[in-house]
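User: My instructor asked us to take a sequence, write out its structure as tokens, and then describe one feature of it. I'm not sure where to start. Here is the sequence I was given:
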Amino acid sequence: MNNSDFLQLLSRELVVALGCTEPIAVAYAAALAREHVRGTDVVAVDVFVSGNVVKNAMSVTIPGTGHCGVDMAAALGVVAGDAAKNLEVLSGIGDGDIKAAEELIKRGIVNVKVAESDKKLYIEVGVRTAESCAKAVVADEHTRIDRVEVDGQVINRADDTAAEPENSEGAPAFLSIDSIWAFVHDVDLRDLDIIRHSIDLNGAIAAEGLQNPYGLQVGRMIQDNVGRKILGDDIVNYATALTAAAADARMAGCSLPVVSNSGSGNQGISATVPVLAVGKRLGSSEEKILRAVTLSHLIAIFIKAKFGRLSALCGAVVSGTGAACGIVFLLDGGVAEVKMAIQNMLGNVTGMLCDGAKPGCALKVATCTNAAAQSALLAVRGIGIKPTDGIIETSPVHSIDNLCRIGNQGTIEMDKIILDIMLNKQDRN
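Assistant: Let's start with the prediction itself. The structure tokens for your sequence are:
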């Protein structure tokens, strides 16, 4: 085992992002295309996105704008995006930029269509002026440039040979539950600045969500009901309130950045904040919290490498599973208890569907955080779901494979149905 492999993986998968990563990726592609087109007067912005991108951009607020939608994300990227900032492409936009983007949409020149692509994450943005045209394609990952074309000529194309070596399941060959456990105990704390950053940024947006009314105010309501003694002032409710508050703020367009995990800000939040909250309540040392959060992030990365970036199943199930492992670490459990916590999570919340990014995601994050705490508490008592039950097998790795099989093979038709419902809602009253 080489610690540098893990550190490079953390650096690649834990990325600062401002706003929900699907509309932000649209803005990134639009900004990239705009940078390469000649001329100042944009006459057309043509956007083609996969269904999973559509559903994750429909109802989530773009930070600092009060607007939702693929069209606004693309317009903002064209008007004011800075592709060099990657997932912070829209940081620093002002009221004038928002008005300019609104004007592009009012002129009817921003056209959005569902792409004919088998990829779950596919974004193609073409920008035209009177003098020139340019196209940027982002695929598979939120800032992975598949190609850039200018006036019909390809000037940049992805180098697929540079991809990370993977095993047959899609995870890097060095990554396993046991290797993650060993790394977490062995790594020098001086090398975990990215973990500190995730704690700082994700903890800050959680505090913001508790202090101010965002979205459904799931976190604030839990906190309020604890104060009214309707709910108990315990570790589980504290972790759930803090984590849900972060999702409340992020889904409602809070302008604070987060550290994402495997391309998702909510997954970054729900892999970080529950562990941080439990560590605070237990009075754990900074070192123990750092190692526990590292464990949480890496377990989530391990599962997501098999699961894929986007799915018809909720990603908070994956990051919540990471959090359960981190909580086990804080409770002095060993690797056997970590594996048991994974089994408990996957036997519980597998099947939670993803119907797009929206304020209601805070409720799903709350559900998975509560499940993470319960799964960990059972595991450290030696209690785990048996391999005779449902999709759970003797090995947690095989249980993870079953989750991924359901998410990748079993939900293809469900994904289509969810998107159809979202695009064709009817007033049935």
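For the description part of your assignment, you could build on this observation: The chain has a mean pLDDT of 92. Try explaining in your own words what that tells you about the chain.
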